[in-house]
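Why should sequence recovery work at all? Because a backbone constrains its sequence more than one might expect. Tight turns favour small or flexible residues, buried strands favour hydrophobic ones, and helices have their own preferences. The token representation captures these environments compactly. In the example below, the structure is given first.
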């Protein structure tokens, strides 16, 4: 049996024979029978045609559309905040396990005053979180406070405020549950035929803030970085690495990844973006950024950095230009570290029109962002069409979060720039943002995109392939031209002889991104064969 070959059909389409090779040792590869895949050529494969027709038929009924899209391969979720991805029910259970308390008025979780797990040790106005298990009204109130479930805007409380306030309500729940959270998101991803997650996570920053206080501020970014490192900032790298080691070991234990009955979720690859809190004083933000770049430069699991917290906050707006220059400087000091930034998560009315001028542009041109999260305000920027052209030329991808753009900013349908980015040739991919807080999953976002913008099956495949192509996975792509999924690299485009097969396998072993893209094509083929 041939192991692997790639080439071109007489029509000009790329043809890939996928076999039962042990190219990378993934269970999906080992189980795959020999098959051919025709990729985006002039003549679509019969499987693609059947699948495209099946999608059009499914569009007639939302439930049928959901069922169709649940099984479709979805590649990766590149914009996913780990703490925001956890459903409220999980947080309630963990708060109860840790004998924590909840304030009946604010629904804020906090530690008990003493170790004994009873209401007397919670303080005035608070009860044990475990009381939610016997008080349905309390349980429902906590879920609603921790998420957007049932939220209706009222005087003084917008969707934006309720969304971001929810994080403070469950923030005290210990990161000791990090492994449980990884398991939850991996299991959910596996059920929806996802294969890769880049999770944004903020490790403990207390020591970094202490170092920042000791060093103080100086305008010379280089000297300030040297002083922060000299005062022990790099020590946190060891701590963060240890936290990830323990969390990943717990995830593997939950999913039986080293046992015969290993869960499918074990095959979901997880990497991390170190997220920095932008709403703090400049010295604290810079200390976090230096630590984030240090972590990403020293641990292959941390594939990049990002900045979070409301972009319209006072400090975020006041210091935005300064923060972009911080990131730009550190990009020069750590050129191998990838950068994705929340930029343009703004809408008219939140800030002045003048303040909508340039956040995305500065993220791209000053901070060297390779991806942009949200990017909602692009058409309010100065010279927006020029900016779109620049982003398309640089292949700066936009992480599209349809539901959170709606619930946070009130932007949806024609007001969301998703179709504008696509028309301009800017690469885009769908993502969840905070699926637990929003009470969604990635399939929900695909359903919403199809229903709102009438996407075809070919459109969906482009979005999904983008999610791996523009990921921060190490190694080269499987594709010759970035974002154009028609011709594979020469190593995997041979005629099928033994030497060509060996070259392809060697290339895939050496390039993780290409391996994941190869895996994605197998998943598409299996999905299309089942239509």
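From this structural description, the recovered sequence reads:
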């Amino acid at each position: 049996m041939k192991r692997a070959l790639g080439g071109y059909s007489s029509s000009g389409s790329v043809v890939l024979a996928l076999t039962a090779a042990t190219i990378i040792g993934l269970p999906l590869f080992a189980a795959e029978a020999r098959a051919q895949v025709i990729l985006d050529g002039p003549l679509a494969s019969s499987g693609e045609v059947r699948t495209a027709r099946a999608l059009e038929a499914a569009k007639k009924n939302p439930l049928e559309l959901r069922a169709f899209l649940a099984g479709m391969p979805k590649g990766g979720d590149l914009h996913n905040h780990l703490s925001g991805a956890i459903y409220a029910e999980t947080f309630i259970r963990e708060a109860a396990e840790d004998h924590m308390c909840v304030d009946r008025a604010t629904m804020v979780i906090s530690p008990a005053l003493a170790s004994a797990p009873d209401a007397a040790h919670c303080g005035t106005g608070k009860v044990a979180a475990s009381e939610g298990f016997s008080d349905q009204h309390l349980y429902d109130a906590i879920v609603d406070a921790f998420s957007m479930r049932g939220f209706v805007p009222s005087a003084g409380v917008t969707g934006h405020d309720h969304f971001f306030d929810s994080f403070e309500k469950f923030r005290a729940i210990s990161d000791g549950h990090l492994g449980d959270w990884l398991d939850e998101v991996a299991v959910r991803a596996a059920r929806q035929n996802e294969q890769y997650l880049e999770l944004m996570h903020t490790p403990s920053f207390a020591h970094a803030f202490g170092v920042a206080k000791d060093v103080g501020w100086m305008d010379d970014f280089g000297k300030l970085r040297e002083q922060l490192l000299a005062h022990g900032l790099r020590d946190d790298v060891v701590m963060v690495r240890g936290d990830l080691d323990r969390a990943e070991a717990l995830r593997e234990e939950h999913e039986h990844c080293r046992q015969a009955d290993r869960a499918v979720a074990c095959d979901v690859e997880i990497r991390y973006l170190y997220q920095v809190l932008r709403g703090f004083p400049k010295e604290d933000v810079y200390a976090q950024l230096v630590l984030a770049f240090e972590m990403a430069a020293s641990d292959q699991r941390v594939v990049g950095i990002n900045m979070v917290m409301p972009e319209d906050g006072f400090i975020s707006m006041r210091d935005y230009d300064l923060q972009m220059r911080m990131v730009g400087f550190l990009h020069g000091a750590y050129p191998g570290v990838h950068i994705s930034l929340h930029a343009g998560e703004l809408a008219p009315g939140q800030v002045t029109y003048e303040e909508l001028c340039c956040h995305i542009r500065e993220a791209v041109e000053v901070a060297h962002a390779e991806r942009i999260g949200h990017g909602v305000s692009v058409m309010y920027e100065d010279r927006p069409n020029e900016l779109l052209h620049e982003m398309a030329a640089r292949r700066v991808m936009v992480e599209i979060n349809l539901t959170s753009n709606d619930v946070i900013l009130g932007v949806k349908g024609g007001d969301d720039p998703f179709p504008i980015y696509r028309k301009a040739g800017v690469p885009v991919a769908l993502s969840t943002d905070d699926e637990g807080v929003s009470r969604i999953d990635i399939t929900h976002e695909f359903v919403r995109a199809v229903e709102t913008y009438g996407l075809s099956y070919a459109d969906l495949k482009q979005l999904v392939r983008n999610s791996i192509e523009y990921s921060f996975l190490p190694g080269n792509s499987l594709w010759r031209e970035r974002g154009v999924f028609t011709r594979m690299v020469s190593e995997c485009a041979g005629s099928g002889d033994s030497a060509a097969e060996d070259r392809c396998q060697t290339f895939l072993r050496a390039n993780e991104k290409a391996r994941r893209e190869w895996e994605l094509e197998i998943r598409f083929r299996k999905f299309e064969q089942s239509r």
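A few observations help interpret the result. Residues 363 and 369 are 6 Å apart (CA to CA).
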